[in-house]
Amino acid sequence: MRTFIALLLPDLLRPAVKALAGRLAKCGADFKWVEEENFHVTLRFLGEIPPADLTSVQEALKVLAPFPAFHAQLGEVGAFPSTRSPRVVWLGFRQGRSEMTEVAKALERELVQRRIPPEEKPFHAHLTLGRQRSPRGLEGLVSLLNERPAVEAPAFLLEEVVLFSSTLTPQGPVYRALKTVTLKEGNDGH
Predict the structure, then answer these.
(1) Region 82-99: what's the mean pLDDT?
(2) What is the number of structural domains in the chain?
(3) 3-state DSSP call for residue 96?
(4) What is the rounded CA–CA span in Å between residue 106 and residue 118?
(5) Under 8 Å between Cβ of 175 and 17
(6) Please, are residues 168 and 175 in contact by the beta-carbon 8 Å criterion?
(7) Residue 113 domain-assigned?
(8) CA distance 147 to 21
């Protein structure tokens, strides 16, 4: 089963992110843009895990229950490996990055203790907007990325961590929530 663990973007912010992704898509680069209902912040991509490990991963999520919910705010667009050579276009955060990093680190420690192979790349708080299919039309996208587009939206509360299964289809991935952990109340994130 293909799985990942993520923070969900609140519904009220999805239209602003979708509008930004639409603006980027108009530049004509050959990218697969993420569907609005699939916007999320991946804390840990697990990939294919055997069914026997699923229970252990679900149990590992309990380590996050003591973490306080926190506020985040969307920021500027960036790209991996760089804005000059974008293969993945993402939206960063003005606020909430350090909290996301702490949650991701605690989760990683717990998963490794449960013999889940460690993540090879360091955690980088971001929301993926699109992935390159081919190098066609990159010039327009690179030019747009140099303008440093951003989402202007209020801060929002992140309070749920979700374990998802991901089924790949020709129309794009289909996500299904398998387990949700609610972060502790009582922190206003400021």
Answers:
(1) 96
(2) 1
(3) coil
(4) 12
(5) no
(6) no
(7) yes
(8) 14
CA 189, CA 164: separation in Å to the nearest integer? 25
- The number of angstroms, rounded, from the C-alpha of 103 to the middle of its chain's C-alpha atoms is 13
And the tokens for 10? 């609140």
At residue 186, the pLDDT reads: 57
Please state, in angstroms and rounded to a whole number, the distance separating the CA atoms of residues 109 and 149.
35
CATH no. for residue 166?
3.90.1140.10
40 in active site:
yes
Residue 188 counted as domain residue: no
Chain centroid to CA 150: how far?
16
pLDDT single digits (tens) 33-63: 999 999 999 999 999 999 889 999 999 999 9
Distance CA 77, CA 142 (A): 11
- Residue 42 inside a domain? The answer is yes
| Structural domain that includes position 166 | 2-182
**Domain annotation covers residue 92:** yes
| 131: Cα within 13 Å, side-chain hemisphere | 6
List the strands of the sheet with 85-95, edge to edge.
31-33, 127-132, 85-95, 70-82, 156-158
Does the active-site annotation cover 190? no
Q: How far apart are CA 34 and CA 187, in angstroms?
A: 31
Whole-angstrom distance, CA of residue 4 vs CA of residue 45: 4
- What is the pLDDT, as a whole number, of residue 75? 94
Residues in the chain: 190
Cα 126 to Cα 53, 94, 129: the distances in Å are: 26, 11, 9
